[in-house]
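Backbones bend. We report:
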Amino acid sequence: MNRINWSRLPADPNGFSFGDLQKAYRLLYKRLEECRRMKGATETVLKKSVMTEREAKKVAKSASKQLITITKKQKAKEEAVKSGYWSGASAISVALTYELFKAGDAWPGGSSFKEFWSHEAMVSTMTFIYTTIFAWAYRCAHPDSR
């Protein structure tokens, strides 16, 4: 008779006595119960981890939306500040141009055009032209802006 390796039972129980079969059955049943317990514990942990993963995805999704919103707001604010500086520089350039005309009494077209260049409509036109030029320069200097 061969010795029985109880930690590794053979597939065919030929040669087992009735007592050995009972012992093997109890051992296998104990192992089956352990496997069922481990399976239940694994499924419980898996369910919890899936729920945690779903919650983490929701939080990450909402956080990324908020982050993008904050970034867009900050970018818009920065762009507004930059455009304000460039617009101010344009207005200052118009004012300096007119002051140079007055100081040198050198109006384009001569002194006879002083009334023409000093008219409110012409000042507005010059402001528009300078602002357009400064806007073009701004776009060239900042290609990533809209």
